[in-house]
Specification:
Layout lengths: L4 E5 L7 H5 L4 H30 L9 H35 L8 H19 L28 H29 L12 H32 L13 H35 L6 H14 L15 H13 L1 H15 L8 H24 L1 H7 L3 H31 L5 H27 L16 H31 L37 H7 L9 E4 L5 E5 L11 E3 L8 H17 L4 H18 L6 E5 L1
Parallel strand pairs: 1-4
Antiparallel strand pairs: 1-5, 2-3
Helix pairs in contact: 2-3, 2-4, 2-15, 3-4, 3-5, 3-7, 3-13, 4-5, 4-17, 5-6, 5-17, 6-7, 6-8, 7-8, 7-10, 7-11, 7-13, 8-10, 11-13, 11-14, 13-14, 14-15, 17-18
């Protein structure tokens, strides 16, 4: 019996900057997303440190007035749009095609365009600091604070078009994820067998596709108000500032689930592996993600309980906000049941994933308080709300993202992160986070308002603010240890085998790091835990190791492959998309065009030329790289 002849792509030996600028490989695109997000995380973290330094003691003068408003606005915008979302997109780009047995994303060039749009959009947004001042109306941009009357500089215009560019990136990424997960799954990988990280990413992508047009429309209307004399948000001319809030929060609250659902998927992958047992209640965990996505579109006005909406409207949104706790609680109890009775290995990925569960529960309980209209009336615009969303998004999303990096770092790099440094990082991050944000609950109950740059002595807020600032610096120290761990491990980290954690999803069948084509032959899946089935059930169908040849004719990696039917002799061709510079040129064209709308008209034709050039060359370029044949 003969094995199929496999036409493998020529080895991608390209190195250097140009290979990264032209890459369309989903793994490199994922790494670019994560590197870009790490850079912006440093900026957002520095902004957070400035904010906490200013608030450490009463009547401080470190960062005052408009400078404080600019840093506060950019911190919120950066952490939401330039850190959490792209980190999750980067992890999804790298891991999900491997998890579902695909060779790449469905639209590789569109994928590359999305990452360049993210990077250039982030740079564009931060250019505001040196080109007339950053936006200063808060990351929520409430009207009429964003009107020309109150924000005369270009900061709000940079914010408008920066978010539009980032929205393009998010939409293109979501289209790619939806198409890839629905159409490129390996044979046998039904939706009822789909890894939970892929499930939550699929739901998240639909949320982005339905929610992002709302904020895009609002931003466009705001630009018209500022520059063409319209009055969509001006009540003196028949507009309505609450229209902005409805349009913004129709995106803004699903945005919370856009950031938390993939994190829930990560935790649903990590906890079973380190508990040495399958996820408890797979179906409930998967379908509760869909339920959260649906309910997430019915709760946006709980951000608006204090604006004077009718009581019946407040009651509806209060009920929806309480209802979303039900599918969330389903996940929490299933995670606990997964750990319960398991043979737990207390490695760094597990510690961060377990901390996610605890901290997200605290944040969720705070959300239940705010979902009650009378309680919200007392607590809205206080530091209680700041504590709540940081426990939900930082204690939630960021702890899960860090767990994912520790978990998949050996797959991405072929090396382990240092476990001792990982435990030190966990201790600093966990302690620092709780010291920084738990006191804010108490500050909010004591009446400290949000978005103020100073406060008077004698109000009883001094010690709690100082404690929060100390916690923030401990938290920052934890991330210094984290980045030092990454740098050290890339150079001298312990070598990792292909399956270092005894994982159960398909990415652990590939070498570490995986080859450009991922799988020499597409695996066939027979259960929710295909790799565990291969190793532990004696399933005769999958064959774990196939020797393939690299492009130079030498024996290459030993790749784990599943599903080779006995007696097959047909030829299988592997076609990889050709590298392309034109997604970057297209993204650069849109960015330069936006720069012209904000600064000087001369950039508008330059941007249009780059856009047209990129589009024309994109459609003319051949789709695939060369392949050659070898027998495996």
């Amino acid at each position: 019996m003969t094995s199929p002849t496999v036409a493998l792509p020529r080895a991608h030996a390209e190195r250097g900057l140009l290979s990264w600028l032209t890459t369309v490989d989903h793994k490199r695109v994922g790494i670019l997303y994560m590197l870009g997000a790490a850079f912006f995380a440093l900026i957002g973290g520095l902004e957070a440190m400035l904010i906490r330094t200013q608030l450490a003691v009463p009547n401080s003068r470190v960062l005052v007035g408009d400078a404080y408003n600019q840093v506060l606005t950019m911190h919120g915008t950066t952490m939401v749009f330039l850190v959490v979302m792209p980190l999750l997109a980067g992890l999804g780009n790298y891991v999900i095609p491997l998890m579902i047995g695909a060779r790449d994303m469905a639209y590789p060039r569109l994928n590359a365009f999305g990452v360049w749009m993210f990077m250039l959009g982030g740079i564009f947004l931060n250019l505001s600091f040196i080109l007339g001042g950053a936006p200063d109306a808060g990351w929520f941009g409430y009207a009429p604070l964003t009107a020309k009357t109150f924000s005369r500089g270009t900061g709000i215009d940079f914010w408008i078009w920066g978010l539009q560019l980032l929205g393009i990136s998010s939409i293109t990424s979501s289209i790619n994820f939806v198409t890839t997960i629905l159409l490129l799954r390996a044979p046998g990988l039904t939706m009822n067998r789909l890894p939970l990280f892929a499930w939550t990413t699929l739901v998240t992508s639909f949320l982005i596709l339905f929610a992002m047009p709302s904020i895009s429309a609002a931003l466009f209307l705001l630009f018209l108000d500022r520059h063409l004399g319209t009055h969509f948000f001006n009540p003196a001319a028949g507009g309505d500032p609450l229209l902005w809030q409805h349009l913004f929060w129709f995106f803004g609250h699903p945005e919370v689930y856009i950031m938390i659902l993939p994190a829930m998927g990560i935790v649903s992958e990590v906890l079973p592996v380190f508990s040495r047992k399958p996820i408890f209640g797979y179906t409930a965990v998967a379908y509760s993600s869909v339920a959260i996505g649906f309910i997430g579109f019915t709760v946006w006005a709980h951000h608006m309980f204090a604006v004077g909406l009718p009581d019946v409207v407040n009651a509806f949104f209060s009920a929806g906000s309480l209802l979303v706790a039900v599918p969330t609680a389903v996940k929490v109890f299933n995670w606990i049941a997964t750990i319960w009775g398991g043979t737990v290995r207390y490695r760094a990925p597990f510690l961060f994933a377990a901390a996610f569960v605890a901290l997200f529960v605290i944040g969720g309980l705070g959300g239940l308080f705010l979902a009650s209209v009378p309680v919200d009336w007392q607590l809205t615009d206080t530091y209680f709300v700041v504590a709540h969303f940081h426990y939900t998004l930082f204690g939630g999303s960021m702890f899960a993202i860090v767990a994912a990096i520790y978990y998949w770092f050996p797959k991405i790099t072929g090396r382990f992160l240092d476990e001792r440094l990982g435990r030190l990082h966990f201790a600093l991050q966990f302690i620092g986070f709780n010291l920084a944000f738990f006191p804010m609950h108490l500050l909010g109950l004591m009446g400290m308002p949000r978005r103020v740059y100073t406060y008077a002595a004698g109000l009883g807020w001094e010690s709690l603010n100082l404690l929060a600032t100390i916690g923030a610096f401990i938290l920052a120290l934890g991330f210094v240890v984290f980045f030092a761990n990454i740098a050290r491990s890339l150079v001298a980290g312990e070598r990792a085998p292909d399956d270092p954690w005894d994982g159960h999803t398909l990415e652990w069948l590939t070498p570490s790091p995986p080859p450009p084509y991922n799988f020499a032959r597409i695996p066939v899946v027979q259960s929710r835990r295909p790799v565990w089935d291969t190793k532990y059930t004696g399933n005769p169908h999958p064959r774990p190791v196939v020797e393939v040849l690299s492009g130079n004719g030498n024996k290459g990696d030993h790749n784990g492959h599943m599903g080779d039917h006995e007696g097959d002799s047909e030829e299988e061709h592997i076609h990889l998309p050709a590298p392309s510079l034109w997604p970057l040129v297209l993204a650069a064209g849109l960015t330069v065009f936006a720069l012209g709308l904000v600064t000087h008209w001369i950039f508008v034709p330059v941007g249009l030329f780059l856009f047209a050039l990129g589009m024309a060359r994109w459609v003319q370029q051949p789709l695939f790289s060369e392949t050659h044949e070898t027998s495996s």
